[in-house]
Amino acid sequence: MADKITLSVIKADVGGFVGHSSVHADLLKKAEEKLNEAKNEGLLKDYFVGHVGDDINLIMTHFLGVDNPKIHELAWNTFLECSEAAKRLKLYGAGQDLLSDAFSGNVRGLGPAAAELEFEERTSEPVVIFMADKTEPGAWNLPLFKIFADPFNTAGLVIDPKMHDGFRFEVHDLVENKKVVLATPEEMYDLLVFIGAPGRFVVRSIFSKTTGETAAVSTTQRLNMIAGRYIGKDDPVCIVRCQSGLPALGEVLEPFATPHLVSGWMRGSHCGPLMPVSMKDATPTRFDGPPRVVALGFQVSNGTLVGPQDLFADVAFDKARELANELASYMRRLGPFEPHRLHLDEMEYTTMPSVMKELTGRFEPL
Ligand code: F6R
Ligand code: MG
Ligand code: MG
Fold first, then answer.
1. CB of 71 within 8 A of CB of 2?
2. Which ligand is nearest to the CA of 14?
3. What residues flank ligand 1, with Cβ below 6 Å?
4. CA 109 from chain center: how many Å?
């Protein structure tokens, strides 16, 4: 039996160029050098350095399984060196996602986020890596539901015998730190009760009922909760395997043809459309946004990452971008009012306590 391959995507924002809009070429070069070294030493089978907005995404394949300390240490050291480069250039927020001075075997809780998947390669192994900026992990809830549970999106749920039984969703409660597994289609309504609240409940992974295989996995950390103060949104990543018993590539991309509204955008405190873009257009500048998502397609071949294909570069997503721009303009017109500005509990920045304190004496009973 072939060795199982692990696909690890570990991401962090270690400095923006300019502001929080993009990643400087020197940082990408540094990350490239580090991962190339690790590949030459045999630690990695292959890698690709991706980016979206101000986030660097290390896409790596290896044979060491998920949560491997050597792989996590490699990612951590790579981000450290990138943040040194960022500090030299005085890039904005240099080192912002590296919350600790001491690495202890896993990036969990230290700032960077990881989505990892160990699997036996099928005869052909197409995967899509979604990477978003200026939003939060719950942003994947709606597209993942459509991909794996909505027959109006995914024809295969109805007409492919290998998908007709449905999928299992592992949902994490980020507030109470609990998880639950719910099966579709039979528990679809229960699932929606939770994942319709993406600020708290997020889909961590999805499993095929037919084969038991993991079909998707996403990042679920909440940096602002770890740090106890605002240090940026937890721009998320999601890995989805496609085809032969899993949703087809086109079914996986289809939800993004209708941009949905997500939390994030300016100061992590606004609601706006998630715009699907090519990597070259992943530079959120209008009001620090609107939030962006990039989709990189790879064929994994004996651990080698054949690709990427920049999937949202397709002109078929032009209409989605147009709609996202229209939605963005509409939402902007609401200015400081909800629902453009997020509900008080969801805001990453607020002056409410100080303003309230200042005005306490002027409040009178009704
Ligand atoms: C959102 C984000 C930006 C910043 C904004 C203010 O995730 O990163 O919108 O929140 O540019 O940044 P500071 O407070 O650093 O000036
Ligand atoms: Mg930033
Ligand atoms: Mg970011």
1. no
2. 2
3. 19-20, 134, 232-233, 264, 266-268, 288
4. 16
29, 107, 16: which is closest to 70 by C-alpha?
107
Distance set, CA 328 to CA 18, 101, 177, 269, 324 (Å): 21, 39, 33, 14, 6
Residue 59, token pair as written in the block: 């896409």
* Ligand (nearest to CA of 235): 3
- pTM (two decimals): 0.96
Q: Do 121 and 2 touch, CB atoms closer than 8 A?
A: yes
Pairing of strands 167-173, 113-119: unpaired
- CA-wise closest residue to 52 among 108, 12, 112: 12
Tens-digit pLDDT string for the chain (366 aa): 458 999 999 999 999 999 999 999 999 999 999 999 999 999 999 999 999 999 999 999 999 999 999 999 999 999 999 999 999 999 999 998 888 877 888 998 788 999 999 999 999 999 999 999 999 999 999 999 999 999 999 999 999 999 999 999 999 998 899 999 999 999 999 999 999 999 999 999 999 999 999 999 999 877 666 666 656 568 999 999 999 999 999 999 999 999 999 999 999 999 999 999 999 999 999 999 999 999 999 999 999 999 999 999 999 999 999 999 999 999 999 999 999 999 988 888 888 888 999 999 999 999
Atom of ligand 1 nearest to the CA of 288: 9
